[in-house]
Design goal:
It contains 7 helices and 9 strands, in the order βββαβαββααβαβαβα. It is of the alpha/beta class. A 9-stranded mixed beta sheet has the order 3-1-2-4-5-6-7-8-9. Helix 5 links the parallel strand 7 and strand 8. Helix 1 packs parallel to helix 2. The longest helix is centred in the last third of the chain and has 18 residues. The protein is globular and about 45 Å long. The mean pLDDT is 96. The protein binds iron/sulfur cluster (SF4).
Amino acid sequence: MKISEIFYSVQGEGKLVGVPSVFVRVSGCNLRCVWCDTPYASWEPEGEELQIDKIAGRVGDFSAGHVVITGGEPMIMPEIGQLCTAIKSRGMHITMETAATVFSPVEMDLASLSPKLANSTPLEREGGRFAAAHERQRMNIAVIQQFIDHSPDFQLKFVVSGEGDLVEIHQVLGQLRGWKASDVLLMPEGIDVGTLGERGAWISEICKCEGFRFCPRLHVLLYGNRRGT
Ligand code: SF4
């Protein structure tokens, strides 16, 4: 499996924000979000091919109980099931960060589902050559529902860049079953403290009205937009 980085940090997003965790970032993605903050795992994938036991061994080198498998898109990796099984055999909690466009019943504890809204479509980047494929794949309601139905726990994390995004979020939620408002997280899009603060101000007000959770990007606030954090 191609891996761009393995590092130890604190979870910056979601229900487990602040929990010390080992991050395994796979390299490669089926989407091309215009604002992707990990282009080295999507637009220009970098990394090294590692065997599953090697990845699990490196994870075990840290004294952590939580692992976050992220990307890129982990769920498109043919060996993702083997990786999850190897990590679970060490008794660790797995959060799977996924855009929820591909499902398979792999072992995990928290499915962190981040369906991509229309604000993600790269209409102009690289001449718009990825826009049609991204638009076709970015939202798959049936797959999101499979994750909700088959995961021990889940969260629905939406990346928000404009107040108009709320219309699409309600359209998506209206097609899904088995969620409650506290499973829904709204996270500002942004990779600097100023943007996160400006957007966070009005997004948190929406959360107060809707009963959704506000999702900070703690790692950006603590470390800036740097790899390995
Ligand atoms: S799904 Fe995630 S990794 Fe893939 S392009 Fe979008 S933000 Fe980047």
